[in-house]
Amino acid sequence: MEVFSPIQQVTLPTQHQIWVKRDDLIDPYISGNKWRKLKYILATAIQTKRTHLVTFGGAYSNHLVATAAAAARHHLTATAFVRGEEVENEMLLLCRLFGMELRFVDRDCYRDKRSLFSKHFGDHGSAYFIDEGGASEQAVEGCREIITELPMHFDHIFCAAGTGTTAAGLLREINAQKLQSKLHVIPVLKGAAFIEKEIAAYEKNIDQLVLHLDYHFGGYAKTNPELISYIKGFTAATGILIDPVYTAKMCYAIKDLFEKGLLKKEEKVLAIHTGGLLGLLGMREKFAGGKA
After folding, report:
1. Residue 52's closest CA among 71, 37, 38, 70?
2. What confidence tier does 89 reach under pLDDT thresholds 50, 70, 90?
3. Entry pTM
């Protein structure tokens, strides 16, 4: 399917105006950058007559849900290797409802994903390997299309990052079009300077890249009361849901950079909403007054 997500102009609680590329509206289960990443991966799998998708992720992975939903819609089967001990949660329930088989593996085995694939599916000609988060050249090509859909020039473009794949796609098209937009990447992991190398592996010219390493709030899927409070205020003020793992950290960074004067009111700022809203399901107690 071809989908162009809308761009919405919003006023932040700080009274600064930004634009939001609403990729979260593409689909409820294959939303945001997950749809972008899987678009060409699925096309390749289908073209090469692979009927079984094999992928990897944590117990709260949006990627697993997206892959399960995409497989079901394309009449494919799917298996996921899930990192860590066997658990039950809302995300894995959705995976199972979409027909995905879940195999829990210890963290040491999980590190070598190619080996896991070869051991369990190496002799299955119908199986197709999809890396964690969909990281691949096809995913980069899917994500670069976000830039081709923009109707105007933006001085600053922001995205959250886990692996850097989405950022690599954005940067590739910024360079291809010779845009003067600065790409601001907000890693959601602690100590994520390595993401610059991950991006450069796909797109060598990183002149327009600005990496902000101080908005991880303690690490992947970590929060604190300040971030939870910010999410509540942002959502109430704009009507746009953001998740604690990715988009909230990006939006908080934009707010902070405005307040520090590093972004100017007269500059046009675009935030890429990469979806991931199902991540809210695993943090219900934090929004109900529990500890962050």
Report:
1. 71
2. very high
3. 0.93
